[in-house]
Design goal:
By secondary structure, this protein is an alpha/beta fold. Helices cover about 40% and strands about 20% of the residues. The chain has two domains: about 210 residues, FAD/NAD(P)-binding domain; about 100 residues, D-Amino Acid Oxidase, Chain A, domain 2. A seven-stranded mixed β-sheet has the order 5-4-10-11-12-9-13. It has a five-stranded parallel β-sheet with strand order 7-2-1-8-14, with helices on both faces. Strands 3-6 form a two-stranded antiparallel sheet. The longest helix has 30 residues.
């Protein structure tokens, strides 16, 4: 594509803002359309694994990230009933050494502000708030800017409006799991939580991930359990029945974990939905990235990372291909296999994390035998993606 071609991005979340920065790095200007009057990120914590942080470092954002995030020394798996350690993956300095990029944890709002500040500092990035793009995206963008864009990038999440303009897109489906997101003040934290570690507590049909958010002096808790289908998979649809289901999922867990769950505030109920296999672009001028294209369950903690990878790859394809259809085809060819492998890993983690009975015993034996080095090696393909010395795909 020509650098003079106009590019429009729908959505100013992590995917859309990263997309704008990656395009700017390749010499493209862009218009970013956000339906909200201002950016107010929902959710709380976010894990940025090395495959994602590597791209943000290349965009020049490391100093801003280091000012707010923490780099955990390890990622631990712990039995939720007994608090017995099951396995540990080295992170911290080991992550920088092994995967050539840091493993960071921070508040989603912090990352979004860093991206927003960077976008607003780019002369070629034009951000339009309170602009809802619906119906025909090409016509809507043309009406807003007076120009018909050469490319429209749908970065507007799982409930994407842009997806409606692409024939054969994947349907949104409830995954069968729900996430409860909670914030626990450091003063309420028990000894099983560590300020320098991400900890996943495992139990039958449920698991709980905990890690510190230094910006707000709290721990982020994400509890994932089985749940019933709902009419609309959206945030905050709470009820007494769902609260009882949540409490029942952890009633046999260690008392310290039960106490922390009870004392945590800001509990939010999130039905976890996915986007099934389907088209990512219309072979002409509209393409999807991130959750809009391939929303997945969070069992591999890769949702934001995949959106960041998508943005980097699509910007490169647009810069190197002669036109948008060729760029879309190359982007899809590169990303499909990667996304499929990450989905497979997430499905495996769900099976392993929520195991019960003999499967749980076998899981614990395998984890013990592998040890920290073996578990880190199992993640090379995921976390080492994009490292020049590895060229992992």
């Amino acid at each position: 594509m020509q650098k003079t071609d106009s590019v429009a991005i729908i959505g100013a979340g992590i995917a859309g803002l990263t997309m704008a920065l990656c395009l700017a790095r390749q010499g493209f200007a862009s218009d970013i359309f956000e339906q909200a009057d201002a950016l107010n990120e929902v959710g709380a914590g976010l894990q940025l694994s090395p495959n994602a942080s590597r791209i943000l470092v290349e965009l020049g954002l490391l100093p801003a990230l280091e000012a707010v995030w923490s780099e955990p020394k390890s990622i631990g798996l712990v039995d939720g009933h007994s608090l017995r350690p099951l396995a540990e993956v080295p992170a911290g300095a080991a992550a920088r050494s092994r995967w050539s990029a840091p493993y960071g944890i921070l508040h989603r709002a912090s990352l979004q502000k860093i991206l927003l500040d960077a976008v607003q500092s780019e002369p070629g990035c034009r951000l339009h708030f309170a602009k809802r793009i619906e119906g025909d995206p090409l016509a809507a963008v043309a009406a807003a800017t007076g120009l018909r864009p050469s490319v429209i990038i749908g970065a507007d999440g799982i409930w994407s409006e842009a997806r409606g303009a692409i024939p054969g897109v994947g349907a949104v489906r409830f995954s069968g799991n729900v996430a409860w997101r909670l914030l626990l003040p450091n003063t309420e934290a028990k000894g099983c939580l560590s300020a320098d570690r991400v900890t996943a507590f495992l139990g039958p049909e449920a698991h709980l991930v905990a890690y510190p958010l230094r910006e707000i002096d709290s721990f982020n808790l994400v509890a994932i359990i089985g749940g019933k289908p709902v009419e609309a998979c959206w945030v905050g649809q709470d009820s007494k029945e769902r609260q009882r289901e949540f409490a029942a999922a952890f009633e046999a867990w260690h008392p310290d974990l039960q106490s922390m769950i009870e004392n945590a505030g800001s509990a939010t109920y999130w039905p976890l939905c996915t986007v099934e296999e389907g088209a990512w672009h219309n072979k002409q001028d509209i393409v999807l990235i991130g959750d809009a294209a391939h929303a997945m369950t969070p069992f591999a903690a890769q949702g934001a990372a995949m959106a960041i990878e998508d943005a980097s790859e699509l910007a490169l394809c647009l810069a190197e291909c002669p036109d948008a259809p060729a760029a879309f085809a190359r982007y899809e060819q590169t990303r499909r296999a990667r996304i499929a492998r990450v989905r497979k890993r997430a499905a495996f983690n769900r099976f392993a994390y929520h195991a019960r009975g003999p499967v749980r015993i076998a899981r614990n034996l395998v984890l013990a035998r592998k040890g920290p080095e073996g578990l880190a090696a199992d993640l090379d393909w995921l976390y080492g993606y994009g490292a020049s010395e590895r060229e992992k795909a």
